[in-house]
């Protein structure tokens, strides 16, 4: 039997960075991935010479002085990829307001004050609240104290972390802002967390808000798959192993301690620590060999709300979108200022009124396509229940109809779009569920409600000694930055356990 210090299930972002950190620390690691390539939901794929980014637009923590950038530099991987610094995050469009978010909080606040002069004082108070939270969060996150002690003293040294952990976004913004349209604009980033402001945790919202409205972001030339492939190469150079096209079917325990995994080919691999970057539900209620522990986890996990899913259309175009009038890499298009309505449009499958995102990756990196051509990603949040019970013929027909409808909506901003389509692919919530083995196609793991966010989110430690969770379903949450944090934290937990294990 092959033996390792650590086995990592899943080469998504969390699993990749866990494996990189552990292998860089001299540990013998086996990273197992069911797909032929790394990246999980954040991968790339190609069709007829067009390279499509499956989900990512940019990553904030890879900007100058970002913690992911610093980690990559420490690992020497910054020399393996080329970073493309973005000029702005998005053009954000509402029925009566249209502006560009450029990673500059001063410009954002200036626009808001100019558009809503009656709220100037209230905006100052709100952003002062934001800043106070960020100061305390940074102190908490950078603390050298043990995690358990940090949590104990949190109410005394970091009271705003506790405060934001108890509020929804709507409650936070509503304490200061009265104008409903202004509330909607400030809450715009909600779709990158997957819940409307009346249900979304203010704690998680503030982290996402800072990431895209305050901090610079980058793209990886050639697509993020270049970075993930470089990480895999580095893991191997460190003396560890990576297995693709391999599915873990069972986690074996011995006296309540994780001991080994078994793959679909009935290969057994033993390890002192196992990190699962697979979804927490399957990890704890399907893969574990202990029926008692699985039964113990099922009530809790079944009671947790899963996040919403998505519908995406990938277009390969005969010309770049900028020639159709697309002036920025990302358009965030809203039909209403009321995000509760917008969320419900997505949940109920109202593709005429739901919010949509348009992403032109080739504006950032023209090398993704043949010369003179372009790509466009159209994305909207969607509900797995809108697709789950359809028969195959009905499913294919609806998928095509929704794709055409979203293309028509995009064409309102990019006249002539449909005349330049050479390639079209569509992905539904069922695609998300199948490709990512994500229950109900949830793209953000468990929903970031107040009761499922911050200290209330599923922890990385489990009831099985030596079994650690990483990825979107555990703390802190979804998104490349959050999954990076999760993966590094999982590796740190593993290193501590390896230090004291026989």
Structure keywords:
single chain, 502 residues, alpha/beta, FAD/NAD(P)-binding domain, Polyamine Oxidase, Chain A, domain 2, 3 domains, 7-stranded mixed sheet, 17 helices, 39% helix
Broad structural category:
alpha/beta
What's the rounded overall pLDDT mean? 94
Number of helices: 17
β-strand amount: 15-25%
CATH architecture of the largest domain: 3-Layer(bba) Sandwich
Number of domains: 3
CATH topology of the largest domain: the name is FAD/NAD(P)-binding domain
Please, what is the CATH homologous superfamily of the largest domain? FAD/NAD(P)-binding domain
Sheet bearing the most strands, described?
7 strands, mixed
| Overall outline | globular
The parts where pLDDT drops under 50 for at least 5 residues are: none
How far from one another are the termini? 18 Å
CATH class of the largest domain: Alpha Beta
- Helix % is 25-40%
């Amino acid at each position: 039997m092959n033996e390792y210090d650590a086995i990592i299930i899943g080469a998504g972002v969390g699993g990749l960075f866990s494996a990189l950190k552990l292998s860089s620390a001299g540990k013998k690691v086996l990273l197992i991935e069911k797909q032929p390539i790394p990246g999980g939901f954040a991968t790339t794929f190609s069709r007829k010479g067009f390279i499509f980014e499956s989900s990512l637009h940019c990553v904030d923590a890879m900007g100058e002085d970002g913690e992911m950038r610093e980690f990559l530099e420490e690992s020497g991987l910054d020399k393996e990829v080329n970073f493309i610094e973005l000029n702005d995050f998005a053009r954000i469009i509402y029925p009566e307001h249209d502006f560009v978010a450029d990673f500059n909080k001063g410009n954002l606040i200036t626009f808001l004050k100019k558009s809503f002069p009656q709220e100037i004082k209230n905006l100052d108070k709100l952003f002062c609240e934001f800043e106070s939270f960020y100061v305390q969060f940074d102190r908490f996150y950078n603390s050298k104290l043990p995690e358990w002690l940090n949590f104990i003293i949190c109410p005394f040294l970091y009271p705003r972390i506790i405060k934001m952990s108890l509020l929804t976004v709507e409650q936070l913004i509503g304490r200061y802002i009265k104008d409903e349209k202004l509330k909607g604009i400030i809450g715009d980033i909600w779709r990158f967390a997957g819940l409307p402001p009346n249900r979304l945790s203010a704690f998680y919202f503030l982290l996402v808000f800072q990431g895209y409205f305050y901090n610079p972001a980058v793209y990886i030339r050639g697509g993020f798959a270049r970075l993930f492939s470089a990480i895999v190469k580095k893991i191997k150079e460190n003396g560890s192993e990576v297995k693709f096209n391999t599915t873990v079917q069972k986690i074996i325990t011995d006296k309540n301690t994780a001991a080994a995994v078994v793959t679909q080919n009935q290969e057994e691999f033993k390890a002192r620590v196992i990190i699962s970057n697979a979804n927490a539900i399957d990890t704890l209620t399907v893969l574990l060999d202990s029926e008692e522990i699985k039964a113990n986890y099922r009530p809790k996990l079944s009671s947790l709300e899963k996040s919403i899913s998505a519908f995406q259309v990938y277009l390969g175009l005969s010309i770049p979108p900028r020639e159709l009038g697309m002036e920025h890499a990302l358009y965030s298009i809203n039909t209403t200022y009321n995000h509760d309505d917008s969320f419900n449009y997505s949940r109920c499958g109202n593709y005429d009124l739901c919010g949509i995102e348009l992403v032109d990756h080739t504006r950032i990196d023209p090398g993704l396509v043949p010369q003179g051509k372009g790509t466009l990603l159209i994305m909207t949040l969607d509900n797995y229940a809108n697709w789950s019970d359809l028969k195959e013929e009905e499913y294919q027909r609806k998928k095509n109809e929704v794709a055409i409808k979203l293309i028509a909506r995009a064409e309102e901003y990019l006249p002539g779009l449909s005349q330049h389509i050479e390639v079209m692919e569509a992905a539904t919530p069922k695609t998300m569920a199948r490709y990512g083995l994500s229950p109900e196609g949830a793209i953000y793991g468990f929903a970031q409600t107040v009761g499922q966010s911050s200290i209330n989110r599923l922890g990385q430690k489990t009831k099985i000694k030596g079994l650690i969770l990483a990825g979107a379903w555990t703390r802190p949450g979804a998104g490349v930055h959050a999954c990076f944090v999760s993966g590094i934290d999982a590796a740190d937990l593993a290193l501590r356990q390896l230090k004291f294990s026989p």
